[in-house]
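To fix ideas at the outset, we first show an illustrative case, written as a sequence plus integers encoding its fold:
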Amino acid sequence: MTYASLDDLIQRAGSDEIRQVADRNRDGVPDAAVVEAALIHADNTVNGYVRARYALPLASVPDLVRTWSVSIARHFLHRNGPPEYVVADYKDAITALKDVAGGKIVLPDAGGATPTEVSGTVMGSHPAEVFTSQKLRGW
């Protein structure tokens, strides 16, 4: 299951635009394989950033993630050079995903709760102290 769907793409961009960029065999209908490839690409991009903070797969898809996924998939579908407004949406999505990875944006789930964050232990190692008060006694 992808974060976004063909319906989400159509709702954001309109059926005419999606048909123009996803109908590769020119039969008047967006090609399912083309749309699926774009949505999978978007999921992989989102997961690459979100994985830094949250356990995957996300239990539910926050609206923010769906919006970013649509922007990334739409950009991917415009393989012959996306219009400036599509590029702007894509860049905004990537910037926001970087903020998620950096902890500046917290993702709510559909119920308003925060998904489970990935936690780890910080470990360090260092050599024995060279200059201690005992070794420096008398100086």
